[in-house]
Amino acid sequence: MKRYLPLLLAVCFTALAVPVPFQAWSDARSLPSEASLATKLPSFAACEAGDFDRSKIAPDVLAGYDNLTKIVSTLKADDPLRATMDKTLTQMRATLTKTAPASTPTMPASVTEALKNARAWLEKNEPKGWQAFSSSADARDARKASQAALAAATLGKPNAALAALLAAHQLDPQNPQHLVNLGGVLETLALPGEALVVLDAAARLTKNDVGALGWSNMATLNANRGVALADLHRWNEAEAALASALKAGPMLAEARLGLARVLTCQGKTAQAAKFARAGQRRTPVAQATNPASDVVETAVPPGELGGATSGGQNASAQLPPSLTFDLSRGQDFTLPNLKLPQTLKDAVVLLDKYQKLHDDLHARWETIRKRSEEVDAQLRRRPAASPIIEARRRALWQARLHVRDEPTVKRLYEAQNKSDLEVNKVDTDFSHCSGGCIADEFIRKARTSEELDALCNAAMTTQHDKWRSAMHSHAQNLGTYLKAAYKLETALAANYSDPLLHEQASLDAEFLVVTEFMGYVTEALHWAHDIKVFACYESSTTNTSDPIAGELVMPRTDPCKAVYDGMSLSFSVSVVGFSISCDTMSVSAATPGWIGAFGSFSQSFGNKEYTVTVGIQEGVSVGVGSVSAGATSQQGAYVSWGSDGITDAGVSITTGASVGATHGSVGGSKDVITDVTGALSGKWSFIASPGGVK
């Protein structure tokens, strides 16, 4: 097997509650409604010609315009302030359009002219970077140039990737991957005419095979082509290209967002809103909710697009955590058995023990509460992490907030809530009702103190038997509910690598258990107190010397490590390192070399985004077993960039259960990243996107 790129790789699997061969961070996003997105589509689509040229606007003015755009996007459609700010934004856009009108995109007559224009763009906009690359060793070898382009794109510098791809194509002109990626880069750099010409040339070379992550190469080409056609306002052709891309590549969220723009500009707002919503996530809804299936998202011919997702208009606002996080590390919990009194006198004897247990639990509850406040205060004082990491952690937070909404947990919660009401009813019916209580009846009937004691004893004994039965039933329901809820909460906690966030989530799980068990003990305490107050009990019959409850044990998970969550990957290519695991990911270059001479993506490219996919080579052992040589590998990673930095990332490892590999060999699971040489396949893609609806 020919080896392409040096790689540092760390991958580890565990048996998940639900097998998840592909993990996209964007799949954990909570989706807005289609109606809210529909109000933002006109601004997102920018259908009108004659917008302004961002490269001709002063940085501070451009920053002010972008900030105002973001503020407006956060306001609800019926907010009175939105109408005022929309008017200000429209006036500002008109002024900028007059000051720096956008030039009409050119359509080169040939690939040669398109490439000449691309070089001219570099000479004008990135003269230092272009010169630095041209003098580097990467400019003299096609493989190194492609590798350097991948590194630059992964680092968030498509302008640097342009320089390297021009060299890669010049040195290896028959390689369609260079042209497809070059077309995506040109579109991202606002050269749609050049992109279209290059992509049309790529179409004559591209075979109907698969690239990185097992995604269709032709689908990637059509996605780039559709976005370029949209920038040229050729809406019908763009729709056809994007629909074709989506049909062949249902994982291409970029195509869904492209269709959202195209359909908006054709006046099909309702359909556009569906695609805008579906494009917020990487995995199509039907495929995400049934990962074991071969569901392909529907993409019908142009003009007949019926929808972007399965289900209702706003289906799957939040996917179940089992589909977006590793839930394999949840801890088991067993509710301690609480001794219940056999007789009325037993209840009086147990009263002080119930009080002592309640006080101990309350002290434990208070300790957890105070520590939670300390942790929360420390977290508030910390600087924010990168936007992509903060988004991942927000998604985890949302999953924690909605633990009770998980179907199994919800059903068990409702069952224990119902049984708790039955316990309360027994107590309330005896002496705490608003009128006609059992106690009221025998007090009214009794004519002597002896008769009162007899009636009281009989009525309370009957009610005590009902209470014991209700308490036993409630204990079973409460224990089953807490077992499921605690397992899910600790499983979510295990997705945090950050010690403070892991502790916060663990404390929340413990707080729930202590609160609920303390509530159960309170039921016993309250009933025993009532029995003592009425004082109509006989001698005890039960030995109450033993402990009245077992120890409340709440095991914690360990914080997430880069090797256990089943979806961890780390590699280096050229000067750039990439890693993703748990709740963290990073892309960095300790010594960026010539790439550092290029400007950053966020400086002048507006709302545009792009995605880079990287494939792992077929035949390389990445887990227990390997993909056979010549087979299609769906292993790899992707990272998406926008003006605010990294917007999404994901990883797919499908061939094993645990790994500790050295030079392609398979060993036991380890807690360290291990060198693996040459495991990248050489397949990678650059996919342009209009960006998401903000």
Structure characterization notes:
- With 694 residues, the protein is an alpha+beta fold.
- It is 51% helix and 9% strand.
- The protein has helices spanning 34-45, 59-74, 80-99, 111-125, 127-134, 142-154, 158-171, 176-188, 192-203, 217-231, 235-248, 253-265, 269-278, 285-289, 321-324, 344-381, 387-401, 407-432, 438-445, 449-493, 499-534; strands at residues 8-9, 22-24, 569-573, 576-581, 584-588, 609-616, 621-623, 625-626, 636-642, 645-652, 674-675, 680-689.
- A 5-stranded antiparallel β-sheet has the order 2-10-9-6-12, sandwiched between helices. A 3-stranded antiparallel β-sheet has the order 3-4-5, with helices on one face. Strands 1-11 form a two-stranded antiparallel ribbon.
- It is elongated.
- The two termini are 45 Å apart.
- It comes from Deinococcus humi.
- Keywords: Signal.
Could you give the topology of this structure?
Blueprint: E1 8-9, E2 22-24, H1 34-45, H2 59-74, H3 80-99, H4 111-125, H5 127-134, H6 142-154, H7 158-171, H8 176-188, H9 192-203, H10 217-231, H11 235-248, H12 253-265, H13 269-278, H14 285-289, H15 321-324, H16 344-381, H17 387-401, H18 407-432, H19 438-445, H20 449-493, H21 499-534, E3 569-573, E4 576-581, E5 584-588, E6 609-616, E7 621-623, E8 625-626, E9 636-642, E10 645-652, E11 674-675, E12 680-689
Antiparallel strand pairs: 1-11, 2-10, 3-4, 4-5, 6-9, 6-12, 7-8, 9-10
Helix pairs in contact: 1-12, 1-13, 2-3, 4-5, 4-7, 4-9, 6-7, 7-8, 8-9, 8-10, 9-10, 10-11, 10-12, 11-12, 12-13, 16-21, 18-20, 19-20, 20-21
